[in-house]
Design a protein that fits this description.
107 residues; two-stranded parallel ribbon
Length: 107
């Protein structure tokens, strides 16, 4: 049985290494389906899915925590990233280029 787009997004998101981040666009490009916005939509649904998906590791193309408003609390995304050693300043990942995990290059 073919996996749904949402399941494919979850699968790739689970591969992001601890302490690293990816972007909505990088995941969308890797899957060759949909857009960065569709990846965000899929990850937004992950909270109610009951499935373990590290959605906090996915940020926008500038390294900004643009999805933080969809977490149970406004600071949860930042807190989860900081627990993994990812530094955040002004709602943005410090050293984003060094920490960015691109599935098209890494897988």
């Amino acid at each position: 049985m073919e996996k749904s787009y949402v399941e494919q997004v979850y699968e790739v998101t689970r591969l992001i290494p601890y302490g690293r981040v990816s972007s909505y666009g990088a995941i969308a490009n890797y899957l060759s389906l949909g857009s960065a916005r569709m990846v965000g939509w899929a990850l937004n649904k992950s909270f109610s899915s009951g499935k373990a998906v590290p959605a906090h590791r996915v940020v926008n193309r500038k390294g900004e925590l643009s999805g933080s408003g969809h977490f149970p609390t406004p600071t949860m995304m930042q807190e989860l990233l900081e627990q993994e050693g990812v530094a955040i300043e002004h709602h943005r990942v410090v050293n984003f280029k060094e920490l960015h995990w691109n599935p098209s290059e890494e897988l």
